[in-house]
UniProtKB/TrEMBL annotation:
It is a multi-pass membrane protein. This is Major facilitator superfamily (MFS) profile domain-containing protein. The chain crosses the membrane at residues 52-70, 90-112, 124-143, 149-173, 185-201, 213-233, 319-338, 375-395, 407-434, 440-459. One of its GO terms (cellular component) is membrane. Keywords: Membrane, Transmembrane, Transmembrane helix, Transport. Belongs to the major facilitator superfamily. Phosphate:H(+) symporter (TC 2.A.1.9) family. InterPro entries: MFS, MFS_dom, MFS_trans_sf, Tet-R_TetA/multi-R_MdtG-like. Its main location: membrane. Residues 55-468 form the Major facilitator superfamily (MFS) profile domain. It is found in: Membrane.
Length: 483
């Protein structure tokens, strides 16, 4: 790793000519002040953090554009599919089908995107999902009649198959490229906190503007995020050739048996993903946690608004209020709570705490008996939102620097697989227990089942043990070493 600029080499006539000369600490730094190693390290860390500012702005604008339309989508869907009704099974099934199809495509695309980002750079791969996400919003900016809605629905489904979740994991991979392991968990939390902040501002904006203006502003901000990213975000600095210099003992994908006869030798395969899971017990456990926790979250997302609309006749404004509280809780959780507690409790314990409270707040949603209860359940989420950033940080420390895209893409691909399974399980349950044909009266039964899935993830998190981080190295595909 390069020395901080404030670490000076001793002056000497022979040091410039000797390539093996070791740096020594000078009594004064570059400004002429007495040398202070602690201040030097802190200055280096601030430089690294400040270097991520364009990524933070890009992520904020992208999520702002996407989140501000969420409160309005439920009402738009209900008005297009079941006008004048407060309960609509068709709308629930449409939402569930969209999530399942999206998950199916993402399961295939996300690991591929991770591999390609390791090869061609994070910025190149970020361009595609940010660009594509603009088009569905533009459709609803023009109109929200039944025909416009179904055009949006089809286009949004196909685009989400290729881009859902990719901005998140590519941003995490970008951070992993540029931030040392000691600071990575905190920066992951800050990254997620920025996304939560955009969630707050996006939903706050939707709370006070009309539905038509919501989609128009969203499209404009989406275009701004694309232009900003292309003009100002530098390409990530990935260390491409370290394997030739460092040990390859912990290059996890190289431990997998070589594959023969593949046409596209640099492309990921199911064997690559399985090889990654087999060679790291920690990542294998993280994959199980990812699946069950994401299945719970997707089930909640798919059913909560319809549950609240059927039970308490919530509309766009109440949905926005809930989401604003959730976003504020997420921002506090990841910008304040996580950076303060993680150095003392460790990522494993923070992960378990987050998963437990994820279970608790879902159970409270499911038994909501008054309109104020969902707001209380949302406040509890302040202790659950940092679970996934902690999990991704744990995974990143088991992987060499040029495997970050592959590993984060693998985790996102598992999230996408959960997106397939979760709607198939929870959407029918939600529709059934909100209808008059329910076998017993429990409108929140589908949400309760999602909470049980989060409990499975919590139990699995208790089994993760501390393991040494991966030795710095780069993975070269085992395909290229055929005899």
């Amino acid at each position: 790793m390069a020395l901080p600029s404030c670490w000076m080499t001793a002056a000497g006539s022979d040091s410039d000519d000797d390539d093996d000369a070791q740096p020594t600490r000078a009594p004064f730094d570059e400004s002429g002040e007495p040398f202070d190693l602690q201040k030097c390290v802190e200055r280096k860390e601030m430089e690294e953090f400040f270097g991520l500012r364009h990524l933070f702005v890009t992520v904020f604008l992208y999520y702002f554009a996407n989140y501000m339309v969420v409160p309005a989508i439920t009402d738009v869907t209900m008005a297009a599919v079941c006008p004048g009704k407060h309960e609509c099974s068709q709308a629930i099934y449409l939402t569930g089908a969209q999530q399942a199809i999206t998950g199916l495509g993402s399961t295939i695309v996300m690991p591929l995107a991770g591999y390609l980002s390791d090869t061609y750079g994070r910025k190149v791969l970020l361009t595609l999902p940010i660009t594509l996400s603009i088009f569905p919003t533009v459709i609803l900016a023009f109109g929200r009649t039944t025909y416009f809605f179904y055009a949006y629905y089809v286009l949004r489904t196909f685009i989400a198959m290729a881009g859902e979740g990719s901005v998140q994991f590519l941003a995490f991979a970008y951070v992993s490229d540029n931030v040392p392991e000691s600071n990575r968990a905190a920066v992951f939390g800050i990254m997620s906190g920025i996304a939560s902040s955009s969630y707050v501002f996006g939903n706050f904006s939707a709370r006070f503007i009309s539905t038509s203006a919501t989609f128009q502003v969203s499209a404009a901000v989406g275009i701004l995020s694309l232009v900003y990213m292309r003009l100002l975000l530098p390409e990530s600095m990935m260390n491409i050739n370290r394997c030739s210099e460092e040990t390859e003992d912990e290059c996890l994908l190289e431990k997998a048996p070589p594959k023969k006869g593949q046409m596209f030798k640099t492309m990921p395969s199911v064997d690559d993903v399985l090889g990654l899971l087999r060679t790291s017990p920690t990542i294998a456990k993280a994959a199980v946690i990812t699946f069950f926790n994401n299945a719970a979250d997707v089930g909640l997302t798919a059913s909560l608004n319809y549950f609240l609309k059927a039970q308490f006749h919530f509309n766009k404004n109440q949905f926005a209020d809930i989401m604003i509280i959730s976003g504020i809780a997420g921002s506090i959780s990841q910008l304040i709570v996580m950076p303060l507690l993680t150095p003392h409790l460790g990522e494993r314990h923070m992960l378990s705490i987050g998963l437990f409270f994820n279970f608790a707040h879902m159970v409270l949603y499911s038994i909501a008996w008054a309109p104020w209860v969902p707001y209380a359940a949302t406040v509890i989420s302040i202790l659950s939102i940092f679970a996934m950033p902690c999990l991704r940080s744990i995974v990143s420390k088991q992987i060499g620097p040029n495997e970050q895209g592959k590993a984060q893409g693998c985790i996102t691909g598992i999230c996408s697989f959960a997106n397939i399974v979760s709607p198939l399980a929870f959407s029918p349950l939600t529709a059934l227990f909100l209808s008059n044909d329910a076998p017993f009266y429990f409108p929140g039964f589908g949400i309760m089942c999602g909470g049980l899935s989060a409990m499975v993830a919590f139990i699995q998190s208790m089994m993760i043990r501390d393991t040494p981080p991966a030795t710095t190295c780069t993975v070269e595909n085992s395909d290229t070493s055929e005899p």
